[in-house]
Amino acid sequence: MVRVAEEWFAVCGGCELSLLDIGESLLDILPNLEIVHMPVLMDHKLFGQKGDGTKPEIPEADLGLITGGIRNEENKELALEMRKKCKIIVALGTCACFGGIPALANLSTTEAMLDQIFNKEKGTDPSSPPSDKSLPKLLDRVYAVDEVIKVDIHLPGCPPTPAHIVELLNAVLAGKTFALPERSVCDTCPTIREKQSTGGSIKRPLQNAQFTPGRYDNMRCLNEQGLFCLGPVTKAGCNRILGADPSEEIPRCIKAYMPCRGCFGPVRQSSNPTADIMGSLSYIGRDPKEIVDRVATINRFIGSGRLRPQDK
């Protein structure tokens, strides 16, 4: 029996929905799991049943799942408590692994962000931000979980696929290690690559690609077509399906004839996607300077340790 604890921080809740989307396969795993803390499913009192505790406490567990980046003091305190009480910590989802979409806020200082939200938005009456007494104090930026505590397993995805979560849980139950292969989206993409662009400038991602509906074997690489695609620097696995042959899985965005947005994060934890994608584009004759809002666009899902305030 594996005891499981889960916490969610700066996140939309999509990772938790992936847990529910496991479906019938979850029935085979649940008898071997004891969920001791999971706010999305159960009411566990962090400060004791009577609320008379002085600090948050999480039961001891074998496996700790954390979704979302660390944005405020409460997130940080709970992350430290999870690390203290859990033998294995999993950063589940791209927000936990790399900050995700919330980390785009790292392009501004906390003060500038609050001023924009409470004083400069059209249609909003100017007011003071909530005091630290009523809400947990914001940290200076959004942090990935491994910037605050030691993480044993990274499982990215926005959201991670139910199939990968099942593989993770089965690995833990069997006492085995788990890690996604270090392959890029391009390694699993069926489009044709001729290693040169078709000409013209880089287009907005929402413009249509040239393709034959229902087919992928005759579609030209989207970067070569001029649609900015982060496939060369993004980890593969976004369309992992339970029971399917991984070699036959088409990346989610590509399956919709859209360029990859980078939601699975870099191929390796130590990668530099900005330098790598600029090199990939230059290699086929594209000018990376044409990418609109280049810094934010390339780091859309991975800004925790990469994006810095632009308003200082």
Automatic annotation (TrEMBL):
What is an example of a GO molecular function annotated in this UniProt entry? oxidoreductase activity
Tell me yes or no: is Mitochondrion among this UniProt entry's keywords. Answer: no
Q: Which Gene3D superfamilies match?
A: NADH:ubiquinone oxidoreductase-like, 20kDa subunit (3.40.50.700)
Q: Which domain of life is it from?
A: Bacteria
Q: Which intervals hold domain NADH:ubiquinone oxidoreductase-like 20kDa subunit? A: 12-171
Q: Is GTP-binding one of the keywords UniProt gives this record?
A: no
For this UniProt record, give its keywords in alphabetical order, as a comma-separated list. Oxidoreductase
Do you know which PANTHER family this protein is assigned to?
Answer: COENZYME F420-REDUCING HYDROGENASE, GAMMA SUBUNIT, F420-NON-REDUCING HYDROGENASE VHU SUBUNIT G
Question: Would you tell me the protein name for this molecule?
Answer: Hydrogenase, group 3, VhuG subunit, putative
